[in-house]
Amino acid sequence: MSQKLLLNAKEINIILQRLACQLVENHHHFENSVLIGIQPRGSFLADRLYRILKEEYQLETILYGKLDITFYRDDFRRGDKMLKANETDINFVVENKNVVLIDDVLYTGRSIRSALTALQSFGRPSKIELLTLIDRRFSRDLPIQPDYNGRKVDAINDEHVKVCWEANEDEDAVYLLKN
Amino acid sequence: MKELSVSNLLGIKYLKEEDLHLIFETADQFKEVINRPIKKVPSLRDITIANLFFENSTRTRLSFELAEKRLSADVVNFSASSSSVSKGETLVDTVNNILAMKVDMVVMRHPHPGAGVFLSKHVNASIINAGDGAHEHPTQALLDAFSIREKYGEIDGKKIVIVGDILHSRVALSNIFTLIKLGAEVKVCGPNSLIPKHIESLGVKVEPNLVKALEWCDIANMLRVQNERMDYTYFPSTREYVQQYGVDKTLLETLSKPITIMHPGPINRGVEITSDVADSEHSIILNQVENGVAIRMAVMYLLASKIKNYESS
Lengths: 179, 313
Description:
The complex is a heterodimer.
Chain A: E1 2-7, H1 9-27, E2 33-38, H2 42-56, E3 63-67, E4 98-106, H3 110-119, E5 127-135, E6 148-152, E7 159-164, H4 166-169, E8 173-178
Parallel strand pairs in A: 2-3, 2-4, 4-5, 5-6
Antiparallel strand pairs in A: 1-8, 7-8
Helix pairs in contact in A: 1-2
Chain B: H1 17-33, E1 48-53, H2 59-70, E2 74-79, H3 91-99, E3 105-110, H4 115-122, E4 126-132, H5 138-152, E5 159-163, H6 170-181, E6 185-189, E7 205-206, H7 210-216, E8 219-222, H8 238-245, H9 249-254, E9 260-262, H10 275-278, H11 285-304
Parallel strand pairs in B: 1-2, 1-3, 3-4, 5-6, 5-8, 6-7, 8-9
Helix pairs in contact in B: 1-11, 2-11, 5-6, 5-11
């Protein structure tokens, strides 16, 4: 298996700063906006953005939750996807809120579709936006596009994009893996 | 992929320790789901489940039905009293007729031990045993263990005493299998006539003295005296049973440390436990009921993942 570095720690950091800046530009003080990280991998990205917004933009009261989509997947009983769910931690309702869904890689769009359904269990948001670090454009199965995006990647189907975070893999990096 | 090692839940005896942990970890997430404003997930929307109750039940049946509906499954209910069973139909015929209507999963309670195992050999559907005679009641034992894990963090090393009618109790047997697999120490306590012979071979100890048993344990699981299963008198009178094996507040206060009280229901208040014990802060009886729905959702979700209708089409 060969691997190619797509983004190093410095580049990721610049992207995170830019994404945080764009969020503030659109959501100002986050009075009516919330961040939701998609479990498990989107939460690492969401954690980092949450920290930047809190520490560098002094948005101390921002609402932040983690959403697991396992029970909402459209491939249950088809194939060998993981059954085991992760924790969902949303201690607020999203009724009439502006929600920013956060995931690391946007590929087929099916996870996001599941997340949109899962989110309905917590109320009816007034608006939902999507933020991703990597957009694998040209690979979509569903009509879903990000509102905020770190980097666009053109990868073919047997390639895999791996996002590593300092919190779980000791480095910030994005690799393109090829079988 | 992490999945259950079995495709039917016939008894705890057939499960591995990893299966128990997988069920608990899945139930953790379902417990969060049933506390949301909208308590429903779409996982089983293309699964049909038949609840076949050949014996009376309120709580288990309600809990299963609620769990099925929370998972978005289609549900059909059947009870023996209002069916053709009374006209002489056999179990396999009854179930095959129901399966001919394209049912994927069967939840069955039956008065005869082994009914679930028998059925699993003759019909092509996923079977969940919701109690078979005095044999096993696996989902009850799972929810009991889950409730202990919730309160204490783990089950390994905990001391649990099961008090009462061990002889006629499917809850006792399934509890013993579960707790031993998870590393707990288990004692049983009750009148000699209600303790099965050779029960020590399951890895439990017998303690006939209630006070000693309670002094030893962290958790006491109080069982109901199953008068309906008794073919003759096992103890002189209910009054004498209460004096020897009933737990009241005064008795709990004399113990050197607080213990947790569990009961699978239905409670005979004033017999195995008094009302002040059942409603006290030491009792986790209502937590058990809530956890029952989460555990049954987890079991059905994990078993349903093994039904692959889409592979051939």
